[in-house]
Predict the structure.
Amino acid sequence: RETRAPRRGPGPGPGPGPGPGRRCSRTNGWSWPPHPLQLLAWLLYVFFAVAGFGVFVPLLPAHWIPAGYICTGVTFSAHLLVHVLAVSVDPADRNVRLKADRGPPPAFDRTRRAHVIENCHCFLCQVDVGSKSKHC
Ligand SMILES: [Zn+2]
């Protein structure tokens, strides 16, 4: 099984290229700097919380307002819990997590290899990984 290296464009994604813009690999969603889509996810959560609890629920008929707050509150709380759990998990392969040195990933030489992961071995991390590993 082979996994292609992510394309490094001019976008804000992490890039292993040389120079001052080189970034460390992320361990989870709390790693700095955040990706714009992470910021968008948090901003949308706050937006829908404000819109739901501050605008839509108060507009319900009076006898439906408690149900609106309870149902929406349970849903938003569950979503927040799952969101925080998903952000806090380190999705790297177990062997990558066990590797002591997890500094910035080296530059990937496309002239030597077509894929970062070939035959369940990551050539950036220099560790064997599972067949479903998608890291790097
Ligand atoms: Zn790797």
Residues 92-136 form one domain.
